[in-house]
Amino acid sequence: MRIKARKLLSFTPDQLKDILTGVFELEFDDGQVIQTDYKQTIYTRYFWDLFTQYPQTPITTKHHVLHIMGKDRLSSKTHILLLQECRNSVIKSYGYSVQLADNLSKLIYQITNRLYNTLSTELAEYSTSVDILDFIEIIDEPTIKQTVDNALPTEKGIQDSYLKYSKTKRF
How does the average pLDDT of the chain come out, rounded? Predict the structure, then answer.
């Protein structure tokens, strides 16, 4: 199945969760086509709110999360780089002005906030945390306890301890 990227602007990311499934081809304004999936495209759609507000901006493959990630995983920099690509394209299409920069900054803040809220609520079951009881259990583990007791109070000592920690299979 082939879907035009611009057509996705007609739907919110929440609506796309009920529409998109599996893997499909996504066609951009410049005619380029990529193979992607619903998760990557729904994530990307949050950033495309810039294009709903500034529709003269062509949507290209560089505005999709796959362009930013390449073969890597999503990271803490992914959303920043994707927002930067989208923002720069809007400015290129509309011409720089202080008013445009202010409007884009506000919109980027809103997009980031909406994405954060969605990810933190919908992905909560996939998140882990450590409480004080977990921490005590880890510190009392014999291999780690020995490493802490024998650590030298130097930068090299800390690096060596970290390497020993990372080799502890249980944690």
Answer: 89
Give the predicted TM-score (pTM) of the model: 0.72
Structure tokens at 52: 């709903």
Cβ neighbours of residue 74 closer than 8 Å, sequence gap 6 or more:
43, 65
pLDDT value of residue 44: 96
**Domain chopping of the chain, boundaries:** 2-126, 132-167
Tokens of 44: 């990307």
Region of residue 75 (left: phi > 0; alpha: psi -120 to 50; beta: else): beta
Cβ atoms 22, 38 nearer than 8 A: yes
CA distance 19 to 8: 10
Residue 41: Cβ-neighbour burial (10 angstroms; 0-12, 13-18, 19+): buried
